[in-house]
Amino acid sequence: MNYEDLKATNFIEEIIIEDLKSGKHKSICTRFPPEPNGYLHIGHAKSICLNFGLAEKFGGRCNLRFDDTNPEKEDTEYVESIKNDVRWLGFSWGEKEFYASDYFEKMYEWAVELIKKGKAYVCHLSPEEMRKYRGTLNEPGIESPYRNRSVEENLLMFEKMKNGEFEEGEAVLRAKIDMSSPNINMRDPVMYRIIKSNHHRTGDKWCIYPSYDWAHGNEDSIEGVTHSICTLEFEDHRPLYDWFLDQLGVYHSRQIEFARLNLTYTVMSKRKLLKLVQEKYVSGWDDPRMPTISGLRRRGYTPESIKAFAEKIGVSKSNSTVEYSLLEYCIREDLNKRAQRCMVVLDPIKLIITNYPENHIEYLEAINNPEDESKGKRKIIFSRELFVERDDFREVPDPNFFRLTPGKEVRLQHAYYVTCKGFKKDDEGNVIEIYCEYDPDSRGGWSSDGRKVKGTIHWVDAKASIDVELRMYDHLFTKENPDDVEEGEDFTKNINTNSLVLKNGKGELFLLETDEVHFQFLRVGYFKKDEDSKDGKLIFNKTVGLKDSYNKKGK
Ligand code: ATP
Ligand code: MG
């Protein structure tokens, strides 16, 4: 690779290019290290695009590593979903994925090494005592009474920990650093704690588990990760990351921090997402309202749109919150290019063309995708009785209403000009039928004399159409910041109880025949066929509306 030609698009790339030019690294290795304790979300997608993207750009590799160091919350269901999501985004991770649990033996040996160097000790303070002894930002900590045990005693105690001779909470292994360090992370942090639960991969082999701080640098070092990219909260942990690797004298990866993604109207913590699932605020991890990758996929997001989003938000050093509408902008751009056009009526009302022959049908043509000629055209059946949107009719219009109203002419998309001549109401006064006359000389939706109409509406044939269920989604939270709550409340207080509205509409017969999954229902929005569709019953998730609120705001 010719390093001179490389151009950095962010500060991490600058570091990498520098390291390649200086010869510090011949090639780079990054990693994406999820803990398998939940499904991946859009924030993880940012990290995936960044880490795998760097490896692609600089011709290196990116490891997928499961940071499975806490058996209580982890599960193979999560491992499988994570692999599936990363693959779906379009990234691959070489021959095999890595697991922190594969390094438990090595890490144990390294811990013993630190004990032998007098750099770690077994401590029996209770968790509350530990907290008290740790001090605060303004006050130094107090040394544990167990801090100055002999190396022999520590080795023996650590062995006992490993052999299950202590109960949970009775002993931990701590690094012996500095209880008065201004950085609290350096005040003799915990390296191992006792957890007596079954691990999804190692079973009951271990009852001591490494802390994140101890484990992460070790994992990076073992894998030869050159650039270990994590979110900003870990900036204060970097001295500890470096300290452990320096004490061991092993390969030293470089930790680099970047700002995590936050999105308006969205929670991103796995603990909160789990709560939404467990307490059934949503139908599961892949509920189309969830910010999980599986939720976005089911909603109709594409890998391309998510990558474009990651590209647009970029990588920075300061935390901020991105507007949800930017994500919507990215999917709209992508779907505009790929979505099959089709007509669906959300809230059908009958329209009868009184001058059209009874028992007659004709086939009209419609373009499948104006952005992609190769998609061709399809046939749509047209006859005397149609369905149109209830909302496209007004008995008494306001001046800006250009759709169906008595006396006015409109275009039926792909079909004919029709003029509204009347309507019928039921006993309660609801309009139930609209009567129109069509202009036979306007076939295809264009009049022969060049006269113009202001409104174009969509429709489906009353007989040649099918029932469709439309799942109309809105933000899951009513507030831009779902965590904005009064004391004593939690984020579930801000759940939007109208975030899912079901509509029973009518769609073109074409929907039954096609294998396409992404649609633009004309004038209605972008939709994805849902996997719940079966036995001829079609269900569609609304991916995003047609209007661009992001650009409207002048961004
Ligand atoms: P939790 O929500 O429980 O704190 P986590 O989101 O940090 O967990 P991990 O499985 O530890 O979950 O994350 C894997 C990787 O994804 C980490 O490198 C982390 O930095 C990155 N990551 C997680 N959330 C975001 C986010 N919102 N934006 C960017 N990267 C993220
Ligand atoms: Mg984490």
Describe the model.
This protein has 555 residues and is an alpha/beta fold. The protein folds into four domains: 3-98 and 214-261, 3-Layer(aba) Sandwich (Rossmann fold); 104-212, Glutamyl-tRNA Synthetase, domain 3, CATH 3.90.800; 270-340 and 467-552, Beta Barrel (Ribosomal Protein L25, Chain P), CATH 2.40.240; 344-457, Ribosomal Protein L25, Chain P (Beta Barrel). The protein has 14 helices and 27 strands. It has a seven-stranded mixed sheet. The chain has a seven-stranded mixed sheet with strand order 21-18-19-20-14-17-22, with no helix packed on it. Strands 4-5-6-7 form a four-stranded antiparallel sheet. The longest helix is centred in the first third of the chain and has 16 residues, at 42-57. It starts with 10 loop residues before the first helix and ends with a helix. 38% of the residues are buried. The mean pLDDT is 96. Bound molecules: adenosine-5'-triphosphate and magnesium ion (MG). Residues 33-35, 43-44, 46-47, 230-231, 260-261, 268-271 line the site of adenosine-5'-triphosphate.
Secondary-structure blueprint of this entry?
Elements: H1 11-21, E1 29-32, H2 42-57, E2 61-66, H3 76-89, E3 98-99, H4 104-116, E4 120-123, H5 127-133, H6 151-162, E5 172-175, E6 190-194, E7 208-210, H7 212-223, E8 227-231, H8 238-248, E9 254-258, E10 261-263, H9 270-278, H10 293-299, H11 303-313, E11 320-322, H12 324-338, E12 340-342, E13 344-345, E14 348-353, E15 361-367, E16 377-383, E17 385-389, E18 409-412, E19 417-425, E20 431-438, E21 456-457, E22 459-461, E23 465-473, E24 500-508, H13 510-513, E25 518-521, E26 525-529, E27 538-544, H14 549-552
Parallel strand pairs: 1-2, 2-3, 8-9, 10-11, 12-25, 14-20, 18-21, 23-27
Antiparallel strand pairs: 4-5, 5-6, 6-7, 13-24, 14-17, 15-16, 17-22, 18-19, 19-20, 23-24, 25-26, 26-27
Helix pairs in contact: 2-11, 7-8, 11-12
This protein binds adenosine-5'-triphosphate (ATP) and magnesium ion.
